[in-house]
Design brief:
Blueprint: E1 2-7, E2 20-22, E3 28-30, H1 44-61, E4 65-68, H2 80-89, E5 94-101, E6 111-115, H3 121-124, H4 126-140, E7 154-157, H5 161-164, E8 170-177, H6 181-188, H7 190-210
Parallel strand pairs: 1-4, 1-5, 5-8, 6-7
Antiparallel strand pairs: 2-3, 6-8
Region (Disordered): 1-29
Domain MurNAc-LAA: 84-205
GO molecular function: N-acetylmuramoyl-L-alanine amidase activity
Length: 215
């Protein structure tokens, strides 16, 4: 079993991130975005990297092979379409993209994104089921679903290239809102990042089990 983990954004950025790449639906978008940050200056890319390493360690302990979309939290790239190609080349059982949102300060909570309308069979059935299982596990962990975006912690959308280009079950988890004091406090603490990682690992493991794939 293989799970591809994408820690959102880059450790560093330059003008090249505005290069246009395919969206998977006929259009183009920037190669990468710089991401958001908390009011205290804690960067999204740092949160996603640390949390991804925690997820990888737990999945490895469960006997799952993993691969990361980027090698460190200092470098530039890859672009969003390249990350999707890297994932597809591995023929993974699941793809997990980890992000944090930059919403209104009053908005709190996580939301799980999936490609909609679907562009292939993996997106049509398995990805939606994966999103629901991930949502359930996040909520069961005591992390509230977003009160400002999506519906009941789920958000089917067509504008995320990584999800559009995925040929295997894929979700993008916005763990919380970095502009919200409660969410950002959780993200900025090691204990909080472990809580997010634990929940996402349970979501991945639950999805794999639902597909009849032994852990």
């Amino acid at each position: 079993m293989v799970v591809f983990i994408d820690p959102g954004h880059n450790g560093s950025n330059d003008a090249s991130i505005s290069r246009q790449v395919p969206t998977g639906r006929g259009g183009t978008k920037d190669c990468q975005a710089s991401g958001t940050a908390s009011a205290a200056g804690y960067q999204e890319h740092t949160f996603t990297w640390d949390t991804a390493l925690r997820v990888r360690a737990e999945l490895t302990a469960l006997g799952v092979r993993t691969a990361l979309a980027r090698a460190n939290d200092t470098g530039l790239g890859p672009c969003v379409d390249e990350r999707a190609s890297m994932a597809n080349a591995l023929h993974p059982n699941a793809i997990l993209s980890i992000h944090a949102d930059g919403g209104p300060p009053s908005g709190r909570g996580f939301h799980v994104n999936y490609s909609a309308p679907p562009l292939n069979q993996a997106q049509a059935g398995p990805s939606v089921q994966y999103a629901r299982i991930m949502r359930d596990q996040m909520q069961a962990s005591g992390i509230p679903p977003a009160n400002y975006i999506g519906q009941n912690g789920l958000y089917g959308r067509s504008d995320l290239a990584g999800l559009n280009l995925a040929q295997y079950p894929s979700v993008l988890v916005e763990c919380g809102n970095m502009k919200n004091p409660a969410d950002s406090a959780l993200m900025q603490s090691a204990e909080g990042r472990q809580k997010y990682a634990d929940a996402m690992v349970r979501g991945v493991a639950g999805f794999l089990a639902s597909q009849g794939q032994a852990r």
